[in-house]
Structure formats: structure tokens, C-alpha cells
Amino acid sequence: MLYAILSTFLLAAAAPAVHRLTGRASGWVLGLLPAALFVYFLSFLPAVSSGESIVLAWPWLPGLDIQLSFLVDGLSLLFALLISGIGFFIVTYAGRYLEGDRDLGRFYVIILAFMGSMLGLVLADNLVAMFVFWELTSITSYLLIGYNHENADARKYALQGLFVTVGGGLALLAGIIMLAMAGGSWELSEILNNGDVVREHALYLPLLLLILIGAFTKSAQVPFHFWLPRAMAAPTPVSAYLHSATMVKAGVYLLARLNPSLGGTDIWFTTLALFGAVTMFTGVFLAFRSTGVKKVLAYSTVMALGTLTMLIGIGTETALLAAMAFLLAHSLYKGALFMVAGILDHEAGAKDFLQTGGLRSALPVTAAFAILAALSLGGVIPLFGFVAKELMLEAVLDAPSLGGILALLAVLTAILGVAVAAIVGIRPWFGPKVDTPKTPHHDAPVAMLAGPAVLASLGLIFGLGPGLADEGLINAAAASVQGAPVDGYLALWHGINWPLAISAFSLVAGGVLYWRWEQARRALAWVDRAAEYGPEKGYFKMMDGLVALSEWQTRVLQNGYLRYYVIVIVAMTAGLVGVTAQLFDVGVGGLDWAALKIHEVAILAILVASMLFAVLTRSRLGAVAALGSLGFTVALVYVLYSAADVGITQVLVETLTVILLVLVLFRLPGFLNLSSTALRVRDAGIALVMGGMITLLILSTLDARLFPSISQYFIDESVPSGYGRNIVNVVLVDFRALDTLGEIFVLALAAIGVYAMLRFRAEDRR
Amino acid sequence: MEVVMAFVVGGLYAAAIYMMLRRSIVKLVIGLVLLSNAANLLIFTVAGMTSGAPPLIAPGDTVPEGVSADPLAQAVVLTAIVIGFGVLAFAVVLIHRAYEVVQADDMDQMKDTDR
Amino acid sequence: MNMHSLILRTAGHFLLPLLLLFSVFLLLRGHDEPGGGFIGGLVAAAAIVLYLFSMDIQSARKVLRVDPRDVLGVGMVLAVISAIPGVFRGEAFFTAQWWEFTAPLFGEMKLSTVLIFDIGVYLVVIGSVLTIMLNLAEAED
């Protein structure tokens, strides 16, 4: 399992080389890995569909008790199969769609890395690992959306997606930490069995809200839905992948995964059902009144995500079964439709439904599968979409509360959904021929048709034989979401009942709406103006505000005046030390002025006099001489107080310092008197406060020794384990050699810096 | 001695900071030299000042006779002195370079050349 | 950068080899008596800087024979190499290793990674100080 996920990242690293070697066939070659992974995951199917869940663990950070563990059950296997299966078609499709693109190699790198992250996310059992993969999907999807990086819009909207999802990720991180605290484990498989403990825990409400923010941003629920259609700036294969099986479903996956642990409470039900239902309706409504091919599909994805969230919120057995069936149905038809959208663009140059019409004769095969997928989208019997929709309506009608509003929104969504399906399934293919920007000469190549063909056909196969999907996986998936075995089953024909009636009604009403599409869109033009005040406006306002804030703080803090930086640093240090001293009641012991010998007084007098002279003199030579005198006096202090090595070093360095200053300072102009007396007094005040604080600090430490010094260890061990009698040297080159290594490294860097600066100038002049 | 040193080191810090707050870059350099001396003496003083007990061991012995001055503080100060020289050289050359480029030794004028 | 002083020149000529020898002496005895890589390096560097002041840059570079940056690099490499043998003996990185052997003329000898490290420090200090000083003096001309 670990190797399965690692292999995607390894192949990602090797992808550009593979691409260069295999040229046109690169899509097929690289597609081998997702195909192999699909088969590998398929091998878990028998065990999982009989109700087992498998945990595989590798030690990761044993010190922190974090292990890299994977959980294979119905839910994660369903996702893993979708990710690897659709991933195969996406990679082969992209190989042809982006053929000749000079960045195709880079594209493979990102899409494979994204696939690996997504697999890691759905299979991870450890919360930390899951979060890491979660963020990896955000980052890789950012790179995917911004693939056309020379396009300003692509960059902008990639960043938008990144900000929204990573912002949500931050909330999620806080949420899962609390979840681990509440559940008493970092392993999902254990937390899920501790549902009651988590729900009773004091942190339940905050952790639920934080996790919901994470899930809602990722899965584009209202009011975060705006980033998803914008992410259409990505190349079409990316959209197909992000929307069908992956990225946006991650939030839904999280909700489904945590349902046994967090679900079942009133707040869970209300929040998810309401947000989901509203998102569902918003999505389908906006899809209905859009005309861009990818935009319509993107908004219908928002609808699907809303539906899934709502169903997980309702949480009854029927609802969960419906959610899993809907998830599968949506992945199949949405993947197919996005790939068809890519074919429309690639072969006919059409990016808008208004530019299309009567293409069925030019692209017969594409049209056939597009219509098949659209029928599933519209929920028309006998496709799998119909099975899922019937169950969904049944679940909504049986919802424990809020029945009225959910049902209303669901019926409206069903009607508009049919209309949207008609836009996708009828508009481009039938009716009078419209002149597309490019005239299609032939149908799409096999690599691009394989995906839509297989995915759309699966929609039909599962529709005719829902038992296949049900017994295979959907039942097991619903069971792992519910946390208990599921008795319900999928069926094409449930008899004549309310859901069937609603379906029939929505078919008729949706058909009428499609017939009157032009008028309806005109009548809804006001939405555009209203949308300007939507959440996206808030997002841009916030971004502008962030930029303004950072400009302001840069202006204030990074004002370019060194002395203000120094003042801030000094004031902060003095303030913090002062407050700490106050808090911990640090006192100064009695001052012992006695026992000062005459030579000590003399040395300190020279030291202070040199210092004052260096500060006060107007002559540079005088100042340098004073510094030299000060340095030698300090050396004398070292030697007097048993530090021979330090004293010698100080004498040598002081000599070199004076030479250095003489070499450079005299090529600078003389001292200038630039400050007014008032400023000097202010600066002197600041300096004295800091100096006084240092004095107090030293005085207070003289009597205090909170911990035994490690120096005694060095003294005792110098000869026995260091074989040296100069303890200072043994400390430098043996006990603390790593520190010394760092220090000589700094010295070397300084020297190379000086060399570079001087050398650079020489070349400047030439 | 430590008590007096506390005042001397405090004075060195005050002098260093005062010089660093001046606008002339030459004074900034002097402030840097003062600051590095002040910091070294601070570490040296806080570790305790013992006279006549160098951290050396007589041949044949395994531990120094009687108390010994803190070898760790000495090692720290020793490297700090050498690094201080390197950093000072870097700063001085940088300042000199900046002066050559902008022809100003008033740091406020130097700042204006950023724009 | 020539001080044109006959006394300084003569002194520089005679002092240089003495000071260099002294610096090596300080380096080698540093483990037992005051001295060591830092001090030895500073003495050697100061000796060459003194020579630089009494003669000129060309002769100072000639005395050194190699570019001070190379000295710096070799020192750095030695210091890092000395960290490695411990690993092969199954001990932590940078653990000191000692080898004792008897050499024909010198009798009992002790060689250690500690000494290699100290020589590395010595060379880095010489290389750094001279890189700074020689280039500054050159820029002066």
C-alpha cells in the first residue's frame, strides 16, 4: 500500500524523462501505473465487499507515536478505485489533448503527484498523514489550475482556489487536532469506534465547526462555491479529474469518513442538510443560466457536491446508500462529460454551448457517449443516475425533519437538472448546424474517446444491473459511512411511488425549461448583477485588504531608518526583560563593593575612559585608537581572570581590527554632526535604559544559579575522555566541536562575502 | 569585581547603542565594535570571574587543582571574538561599498536612494 | 601599502618565519597548554599581514603561495572530514577518534580526529582573515 502510493510520486519524478523517451505514446505508457493501481485496489474488493476493513501500518515518527497507516474499507476503496480508474483515462486523454504542448512533461509530473496525494488522502488512517495528503492535493491542484501560467487569469484563479482550500485546511488542522484529543487517538479506525465519546466531548462543537469549514471549502459548498467554476482556467483533463473523482470530492469524503464519529447529532444534521440543499439548488440554478461548456458542467458539479453533503447530513440508511450511489454515478458521467467538453474544444474549437449545434454527424461516436452520460446526469431511466436520483428523492422525502424545505429544493433541483442535462445532451448535437470556430474533420482519437466511452457505458451497465455496483462496493461503502452494515439495496425499479412521480414530472418540466432556455436566461439576467455582490466579492475585498495591511505594516516597521529598527529592538528587549523580572520577582542581592584591588580599578578606569573617548571624539583616528586601547584593556581583563586563551585571541583580533578599520574608515568622510541636541538626549536616554537593564540583569544573576552548570562535566572529563589538559581547547574541538564547526563556517561565509563585495566592485569599474 | 563589571558592561552597552543610533555610518561601525566587546564581557562576567585559576590541568593530573574558571564561557567568548572580527569586516566592507555607490554617509540619505 | 620603513622591512623578513613556526607550535600544543587552532591561525594571519605592511601585496601573496580562499576551503574540508570517522565506528557523528602508534624518530605519537579538526580551524582562520585583509589592501591600491 505504501509502495502503491509512493510509486505515483516516483513516477511523477520520472515522468518528464519518460515523456521525452516515448514521445506520442507517453500518455499510454504513463497510464500503465494508474491502471496497475486500479487492478491492485481491485484485489481488495472481495474482502472489502464481505464487510472487512483492513488496516496497514508502517512506523513513521515512532518518537511521536505517529505511524503511517492506511485503512481500506468500502468507502476508501470506492474512492481509490475511482481515482486510479479515472486517473488512467485522464492520463491517456491528456497525452493526446495536450500533444505538442511544451510543458506536457511538467503536466504529467503534477497530475501524477496529485493522483498520489489524493490516494493518500482517501486511504490514510492516521489523521496527520491524512492532513498532509489533504494539503498536498491543495498544492498540486493549485499547480494544475495554474498550468497555463502565462495567462494572468489562470494564475489569479489558481491562487484563489489555493487560498480558499488552504484557508479551510488551516481550520481543518485545528479541527483534527481537537478530534484526536477528543477521540483519544490519531488513528481514524480507532476514533470511528469512539463516536459516543467524541460526541459527548466538550470540544465537539468547535471541532465539528472547524472540520466543516475545511470540508466545505474543499467541496465548494455555499458560500465557498465560487472558486470551483473559476478553477476551469485549468486544461480540460484537469477539470475532468478534479471534478469527477478527486479534489472536490475530498471534502465529501471527509464528511462521509467522519460520519460514524461526528454524525447523528442535531447540529450535524441541520448544518449539512441545509448547506447541502442550498448548495445543490444554487449549483443547478447557476448551471442552467450559464452557457460556457465547462461552466455549465462546473456548476452542475457544485450541485452534485451539495446533494452529497445533504445526503450525508440526513444520515439515514437510505440517504447514505443514495450518497454512495450518487457519488459513483456522478463520477462516471461527470468524468465522461468533461472529456467530451475537451473534445468539443479540441476538435471544434467550441467553448460555449451557443457556438455549437448539429455536431452529431461530424462527431458521431462522441455524440453517442455524450448523450448517454447526459441521460445519466438527467436521471433518466434506465441509467445509473436514475437509480441514484430515485434513492436520493426517497431519502429526502423520508428525512427526519426539515422535510418540507429539503423536498422543495430537491424537486426544483431535479427539474433544473433535467434542463441542464438537455443543454449538455441535446444542444451541441442536434438541431441546425452551427458554424463552430474550427470545422471538425474527424472524430476524436481513441485516446480521447476511451474515457467517455467506458465511463458512460458503465453508467448504463450499472443502471441495468444495479446489483453489480451494489454488492460489489456501494453497499460496503455505505456501511463504512454508517458504521454498521446496511440492509438496503439498489434497484432500478422500486414500483410506482412518489420519487418516480417526481422524476416523471421533472422530466416534463425540465424539457419545457430547455425548450424555453433562451427566454429563461434573458429573464434571469438580473442574477449577474446580483452575483457581483456575492461571496466572491467578499473574497476579493479580503485579498485587497490583506495587501493594504501588509503595505501599511511594511511602511511602519520596515521604514528604512536603521535607528528606528534599533530603537524597536532595544525597547522590546528592555520591556520584555523588565516585565519578566517583575513577574518572577528577580531581585538584586547586596552590592559588594569591597575587595576591589588597585590594579583592577586602574584597568577599569582605562576601559571606561577609552570608551568615553571613542564615543565623544570628533576625530576618526582618535576613535580608532580609543577602540584599540579599549580592546587591549578588555584582553587584560580576560588574562587577569584566568582566561589566557581568550586574552591572547582578543589581543590578536584587536590588532587585526585596528588594521581593518584603518584600511577602510579613512576612505570614508569624517564624522558629521547630523543630529540636534534634543535627538542626542533622546538617544542617550534610550541607550542608558538598555545599559541600565543589562547592569541589573548581571547583578541579579550573580547570586542566582537555577541549574548546575554543565561546565563541571567538561572540567571533570577533559583528561579522561578528551585526552587534553587545556579544557577550553577540549571544549572547542571535542565536546562542542559541532558548534565550532558552525562558527568557522560563519567566519568563512563572512570572508567570502567580503571577497564577493570587493571583487564585484572591481568588475563594476571595468 | 563582578559588581563593578556589571556597571562597566552596562555602560558599554549604552555607549554601543548610542553610537548605533547616530546617522553617520562611521559611528555605526564604532558602535558595532563596542557592542561586540560588551556582549563578550557580559558572557564572561555572568559566568563568574575567578582570578588565578585558569582551566588548565597540570601534566599527570586528571582534574585541575582547586576551583577552576568556567571553561565553557571562555570557549564561547573565544569563538565569539573571532566571529566578531569576521562580521565586523563584512559590515565595514558593506558600508564602504554602500558609501561608494550612493556617495552618502548620512544613513537618511542612503535610505532615500532606495526609491 | 608599503610603509617604506627599512626597520619594519627587515623585521618583517626575519619575523615572518619565526611567527609562522610559532603559530604551528601554538596549534600543536593547544590541546594541553594555551593555544589551539584559533590562536595559532590568528598568529599566522597576523604575521602575514605584518609582512604585507612591510613589503607589498605581491610579495605577501608570493609568501603564501596559494590563494587564501583555497586555504579556507581546505580547512573547511578537513574540519568536516574529521566528523566522519566516528560514524564508521558505529558512534555518533563527530565522536572523537584516537589512534596511537610509534613512529621511527618521534617515539610514541597520538593522532586524532580532534587534531585534524583543530588543523581545519587553523586553516579556516588563516584563510578567512587573509581573504579579507589581502583583498582589502588590494582594493586600497
Give an overview of the whole structure.
The complex is a heterotrimer of chains A (766), B (115) and C (141). Chain A is mainly α and 766 residues long. Chain A is built from 33 helices and two strands. In chain A, α4 (74-97) runs antiparallel to α12. The longest helix of chain A is centred in the N-terminal third of the chain and has 32 residues, at 152-183. Chain A is elongated, with a radius of gyration of 35 Å. Chain B is 69% helix and 0% strand. Chain B has one domain (2-50, 69-112): Helix Hairpins. The relative contact order of chain B is 0.14. In chain B, α1 runs antiparallel to α2 and α2 runs antiparallel to α3 (71-102). The model of chain B has no long low-confidence stretch (mean pLDDT 85). With 115 residues, chain B is mainly alpha-helical. Chain C has one domain (6-140). Helices cover 68% and strands 9% of the residues of chain C. Chain C has six helices and two strands. In chain C, a hairpin with a 3-residue loop joins β1 and β2. In chain C, α2 runs antiparallel to α3 and α2 packs parallel to α6. Chain C starts with 5 loop residues before the first helix and ends with a helix. At the A-B interface, α26, α27, α28, α29 and α30 of A face α1, α2, α3 and α4 of B.
Helix count, DSSP H or I runs of 4 or more residues of chain C: 6
- Report helical residue fraction of chain B: 55-70%
Mean pLDDT of chain B: 85
Poorly predicted runs of 5 or more residues of chain C = none
Number of strands of chain C: 2
Largest β-sheet summary of chain B: none
Shape field of chain B: elongated
Helix and strand pattern of chain B: HHHH
Radius of gyration of chain B: 20 Å
Averaged pLDDT of chain C: 83
What is the spatial order of strands in the main beta sheet of chain C? 1-2
**Count of helical stretches of chain B:** 4
Secondary structure layout:
The complex is a heterotrimer of chains A (766), B (115) and C (141).
Chain A: H1 2-22, H2 26-42, H3 45-49, E1 54-61, E2 66-72, H4 74-97, H5 104-123, H6 127-145, H7 152-183, H8 188-191, H9 195-200, H10 204-218, H11 227-230, H12 236-244, H13 247-262, H14 266-288, H15 293-314, H16 317-348, H17 364-378, H18 384-397, H19 403-425, H20 446-464, H21 466-482, H22 498-515, H23 517-523, H24 526-531, H25 535-557, H26 562-583, H27 598-616, H28 620-640, H29 644-665, H30 677-703, H31 711-722, H32 727-735, H33 737-765
Antiparallel strand pairs in A: 1-2
Helix pairs in contact in A: 1-2, 1-5, 2-4, 4-5, 4-12, 4-16, 4-20, 4-21, 5-6, 6-7, 7-10, 10-13, 12-16, 13-15, 14-15, 14-19, 15-16, 15-19, 16-17, 16-18, 16-20, 16-21, 17-19, 17-20, 18-19, 18-20, 18-22, 19-22, 20-21, 26-30, 27-28, 28-29, 31-32, 32-33
Chain B: H1 2-20, H2 25-46, H3 71-102, H4 107-112
Helix pairs in contact in B: 1-2, 2-3
Chain C: H1 6-29, H2 37-54, H3 57-64, H4 68-81, H5 85-88, E1 98-103, E2 107-112, H6 113-140
Antiparallel strand pairs in C: 1-2
